[in-house]
Amino acid sequence: QVQLVESGGGSVQTGGSLRLSCTASGSGFSVSAMGWKRQASGNIREMVAGITHGGSTNYADSVKGRFTISRDNAKNTVYLEMDRLKPEDTAVYYCFAEIVAGGRGDDYWGQGTQVTVSS
User: Fold this and answer.
1) Which of 119, 97, 116 has the alpha carbon at shortest distance from 40?
2) Which residues pair with 91 in a beta bridge?
3) Which of 52, 57, 67, 73 could form a disulfide with 63 if both were Cys (CB 3.0 to 4.6 A apart)?
4) Residue 38, helix vs strand vs coil
5) Is the pLDDT of residue 1 over 90?
6) Do 79 and 59 meet the contact criterion of CB atoms below 8 Å apart?
């Protein structure tokens, strides 16, 4: 069974930095695109950043220039480096991955990690 496990997150002040990690584990699977979405209280889940297996990236306008997504394909891990954090970045952050396992492709999600930025 494939699962995504997140780590990182926490509480920082405005202007601080945090790094999130997310690793896909299991057996007999391959990972395509990976990325991060976030959901603030009372809001819908929104895209933050995505990265293809080949390393092409895309970002939400609200995080461009402050967040950096990267991945290590050998470790099936995606990272999100978040710099110059703002209070509006406060949310639960979820990693996701497009995974093929047992001949079937599905989207998998991490358990979510809280990021809180105080002013």
Assistant:
1) 116
2) 115
3) 67
4) strand
5) no
6) no
Q: What amino acid is encoded at 43 in this protein?
A: N
**Residue 102's pLDDT is what?**
86
Predicted local distance difference test score (pLDDT) of residue 3: 95
CB environment 43-52: b (16+ within 10 A), e (fewer): eeeeebbbbe
Q: Do 71 and 34 form a contact (C-beta atoms < 8 A)?
A: yes
Give per-residue pLDDT as tens, 24-77. 999 889 999 999 999 999 999 999 999 999 999 999 999 999 999 999 999 999
Give Cα 28 to chain centroid, integer Å: 22
Residue 45 near residue 94, CB atoms below 8 Å: yes
Distances from the Cα of 35 to the Cα of 75, 83, 94, angstroms: 15, 17, 8
The per-residue DSSP string of 44-96 comes to --EEEEEE-TT--EEE-TTTTTTEEEEEEGGGTEEEEEE-S--GGG-EEEEEE
